[in-house]
Specification:
26 helices, two-stranded antiparallel sheet, globular, mainly alpha, 548 residues
Length: 548
């Protein structure tokens, strides 16, 4: 008899059935209803009149090119950069330092990062101010570095952010000891860092990166907040175009929006097919290595450039957001503000901050028990749980809006919390699943032999042993909730304001200190969540030194 079967001896059927029903009911309400809401979105999107109007619109084809370019280029570049970090730094002390900085890079919301990049890369941005005295510039140059017509700045921002998401996925995969041993053996046989990574690690990691890469590509296709801040506006990307048409009361525009939402899903499918074909071609080319050693190369300059190219922008972005929030006067070409004051903070609106806190805490408070109950009494490996991370956000959010509209809950705080759960819950499950699998089941078996019920064993032993990953999952879920833009705007009906919606709204204006205050608040909320999670973990570890 297997150990997993032994752990289910002496169950309590009524409690088990009840908790299993709660798990399925919760998942059905959070994910099942929006998936049902996709049916009217798809059915309306199949209307041939909508497709005819869509293709006759002069903005569609240029927007399609921009969306495909930004999504494909950012996904490809993020994969290359994340794998380069693995090839050049795994395993080393630099690798450990990068892992220590990872929570900060992940916690920084996309919209706040995009606003910081505007402060950094714009024609009046800080990088231009650095060289302005050398070039004798008294006015910003007539360059188009942000919101450029080719979506280069948008692609760069997506690449930098998604590199660290893929790096996070890779760190979880590389915790397996057998991969580390293979790396040591290869290097002891004379293979260099890059050759070891390319010929040994990469073929084994690529297949496990399929779903994360699909999620990155889907996000690149449907991102709206970053595209509004950094992307072109005439025409915008497909996602922004669909968002504008969905907000238009004209029935013809609404019809085109539904067709465009369906087009985004079709593009995702075509991208997945193309990626699979490329994977098969790459797998065939790497299947028979020749065994030639290229020698051990240090790659010192490349390591330096790669490391600081990927980390320095995040620190500069945080620094510039902070400086602009305190700047009273900061005219071009001065490198630092002439005067600092708290005027922008005194005039700031803090209602969006309170709304973000309430929605984030509410989302995590509902997602955590549902996640634990699902992992314990539900099915642990259903792929459909991660559909919100893979389906383009815009059609999925449109489906959520259809459900909220049908139930007459649109514009309510409860509906916005429910809409956030579709992303908060999968991310929390993603963090907790690995910890659940690695926990020794003999501990639960021992507890049951001592007379504990399954529920008592979970409450007294398992969940206490898993407190650190549980707190980490809460921090990740809170950060995901704070960063949500589309579901807040759609399901909230424009009546629920958060720091994210406020920052995106202010990005269209010209008062940078006010924009910086909201961007900094948006960045600080997830960082405080991770800091609180770490502090609680350390406090609990000191009180219970035997726990890992």
């Amino acid at each position: 008899m297997r150990l997993t079967q032994l752990t289910r001896l002496n169950p309590h059927p009524p409690i088990t059935w009840l908790l299993s029903a709660v798990a399925w009911l919760g998942l059905g309400l959070v994910l099942g209803l929006p998936l049902l809401g996709l049916l009217p979105v798809v059915s309306i999107g199949l209307n041939p009149i909508g497709w005819q109007m869509l293709w006759s619109d002069p903005q569609t084809l240029p927007a399609l090119k921009l969306s495909l370019f930004s999504a494909l280029s950012s996904t490809s570049l993020a994969l290359v950069l994340a794998c380069s970090l693995v090839f050049l730094f795994y395993p080393s002390k630099v690798w450990q330092r990068l892992q220590q900085q990872l929570p900060i890079f992940l916690a920084l919301p996309h919209a706040a990062f995009a606003i910081g990049l505007v402060f950094l890369l714009a024609p009046s941005g800080w990088l231009v101010r650095l060289i302005a005295p050398l070039a004798a510039w008294t006015e910003p140059p007539l360059w188009t570095t942000t919101q450029d017509p080719y979506a280069l700045s948008l692609s760069l921002a997506l690449s930098l952010k998604e590199t660290w998401f893929l790096f996070w996925v890779l760190t979880g995969l590389l915790n397996q000891q057998w991969l580390l041993k293979q790396t040591w053996v290869a290097q002891s046989l004379g293979y260099g860092l890059w050759q070891t990574g390319w010929q040994i690690l990469f073929p084994q990691l690529l297949s496990r990166l399929a779903w994360p890469l699909l999620a990155v590509f889907a996000y690149g296709l449907s991102v709206v907040d970053m595209a509004l801040i950094l992307g072109p506006s005439t025409p915008p990307t497909l996602a922004v175009l669909a968002w504008q048409w969905f907000a238009d009361p004209d029935p013809n525009q609404q019809l085109k929006a539904h067709s465009l939402a369906l087009l985004l899903m079709l593009l995702l499918v075509l991208g997945a097919i193309l990626a699979y074909a490329l994977y098969q071609l790459l797998h065939f080319s790497l299947a028979h290595p020749q065994g030639k050693r290229q020698g051990i190369r240090r790659f010192g300059f490349l390591k330096f450039v790669l490391r600081y190219t990927l980390t320095l922008p995040f620190w500069l972005v945080l620094m510039l957001i902070l400086l602009w929030s305190l700047a009273e006067t900061w005219f071009f070409p001065h490198r630092l503000p002439a005067e600092l004051s708290l005027q922008a903070w005194q005039q700031a609106r803090f209602e969006p901050l309170y709304q973000s806190l309430l929605i984030g805490v509410g989302s995590v408070g509902l997602a955590l028990p549902l996640s634990l109950i699902w992992l314990e009494w539900g099915s642990r490996q259903p792929a459909w749980l991660y559909l919100p991370l893979i389906i383009p956000a815009l059609p999925f959010t449109a489906a959520q809006y259809q459900v909220a509209l049908t139930l007459k809950l649109d514009g309510s705080l409860l509906a916005v919390i429910w809409s956030h759960l579709a992303w908060v819950l999968p991310y929390m499950l993603l963090v907790l699943t690995g910890a659940y699998r690695n926990l020794d089941e003999r501990l639960m078996l021992t507890a049951k032999t001592l007379g504990y019920s399954h529920w008592q064993s979970c409450w007294s032993i398992k969940w206490r042993l898993l407190l650190r990953p549980i707190l980490a999952a809460c921090a990740v879920g809170f950060a995901v909730s704070v960063a949500q833009y589309l579901p807040t705007v759609f399901v909230g009906g424009g009546r629920i304001e958060t720091v994210t919606t406020e920052a995106v709204s202010l990005s269209a204006g010209g008062h940078r200190p006010s924009l910086a205050v909201q961007a900094l608040l948006q960045a600080l909320l997830p960082l405080l969540g991770f800091a609180l999670s770490l502090s609680l973990s350390q406090w609990y570890g000191r009180r219970h030194p035997g726990l890992n």
